[in-house]
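Database export, one record per block. Field names are fixed; values are copied verbatim from the stored entry.
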Amino acid sequence: MKLSRNIITYLSLIIIFISCETDVTNEITLVTGPSKLIIEGGLERNSISPLTTQSIKLTTTNNFLSDIPNPVVINATVSITDGANIWDFNHQGEGVYSNSDITLQLGFTYTITIIWEGDTYIGIDTLNEVPQFEDFYVKFEEETSFSPEGYFLRYDSTDPPGIVNYYYNRIFKNDEPLILPDPGNRFNLITSDEFFDGQQRININVNDEISFKVGEKGTGQQLGISKEYFDYLFELFTQTGSSGSAFSGNPPPATIRSNMINTTVPSKRALGFFYAADVAEGTLIVTEE
């Protein structure tokens, strides 16, 4: 899995409070606690752009006011199992642990085990199928008080009937992942099918805050995710958006509960979320309508 696409874990770990009043940084004394393990990434099944490698990145927290990158973890033991098979993830450098042999199957539950500094962490998520795009296109819109002028990525798809589904939209401009720290993301980027179960969804905006110009490459994705990951993202977008802050490298002001459990010392939890997601994807070069 390409780590450049793991944009959500960066959102969950990075917030700096910016004040327009007096700078009192030097007057603040913070108690430094033990570093916490941070997991960035998960498993992704993409039938449009298959991933040859699945990767997880491990780092640790810094002091809250630190502006240096989070230290990477290079000495962990990482494995993932589907209950019948076990795949070892080997360290490739810079805290990245990868495996090129793992096979992902819809409906399977995947468990990651991380052993680090005498503690064992376990996280679990299920790979849920996502409906593929029936059409993927752009639509030009004039500037409004809520969105810029430009071309916006749209798609059509049909929600499977009788199944509770949770979705998360991602967008890439010229292959770079983009997301804005807006609390509205918890409503326009993640959704459940509570009000459209079994219905065809037409003209869905991948992200109504990201516009494109003619000649730019746009990629939109809809991920099928678990309810647990949906709840995590909802809290994540709420906090990152409400802060109105720039991003740099610190954990959010209130810790968002991870699905990574420390089975050795339960009170010593990790940060981040281990997820498994099925991906629907569309890519195009923007042209004039």
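Remark 1: Residues 204 and 277 are 20 Å apart (CA to CA).
Remark 2: The longest strand covers residues 275-285.
End of record.
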